[in-house]
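sorry for the late reply, my laptop died twice this morning and i had to redo everyting from scratch. anyway the thing you sent over, i finally got around to it. pasting the sequence first so we're on the same page, its 279 residues, then the predicted structure underneath. double check i copied it right bc i was rushing
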Amino acid sequence: MRIVEAAQIGAAVERLFIRANRSLPPDLRDRIRACHAEETWPPAKDSLEKIIENFETAEKDQVPVCQDTGMACVFVDMGREVHVEGDIRAAVDDGVRIACRDGYLRASIVEDPLRRVNTGDNTPAMLYLDIVEGDRITLTVAPKGFGSENMSRVKMLRPSDGEAGLIDFVVSAVEDAGPNPCPPIVAGIGVGGNFDRAPLLAKKALLRPLNIPHPDPYYAALEREILGRLNALGIGPQGFGGRITALAAVIEAAPTHIAGLPAAVNINCHVSRHAQEII
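ok and here's the structure:
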């Protein structure tokens, strides 16, 4: 049994939350640059050029890439051979709190959804804990802005809706969102599970590197088809039209009940931030 102090987790969350807000993942940067090369509509190409300039400046000057520094979504894959000394949730919140202060990140969390009093330090984080094999802890921090989060959707499809129904649902969600989520977007798609599992699958889908297709060829082909349908909408970067409405469509699937086909779309803007560290 390996012992890990909760304070180690908090310190890692602090580093990751700041890093994710300042530096986009390499696969995302490469995809945006490739889309810039592919785009032919001048207003869209100019928008992508500004997006590239923005994330390059953020990394060079070590400042947030977006003014909405996001709700801290923290994914913890805990090896079953690890024992944590201390309170994991308190440690995660401490890491976010310190990152907010020392990284000069915007405090965006209200303590109560209706009374709307800001906590002042971006806590509490959204904490997702899974038990996995091994003696390591994998931490992934994904700051989630709400301009895109507000455009996300969940729907209980009928089994008879099948693949076509899922595609239509995803395309409709992105079309309805229009320019609001600051396209080009990344569409995280969750299918299966139950009412609450499908949105979590969709959010986890956003963590997969964009240069890695789904390991199942069926879903890899479905990702390509959905991406083509999304880009055919013509919304374009920042809503100015063009060929690139979405950078990627990424699917995660899970077993479900014979009577159901839960589906969710978790939309992220082009600032699809996440950073990972293994303890």
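The radius of gyration is 19 Å.
thats about all i looked at so far, will dig more tmrw
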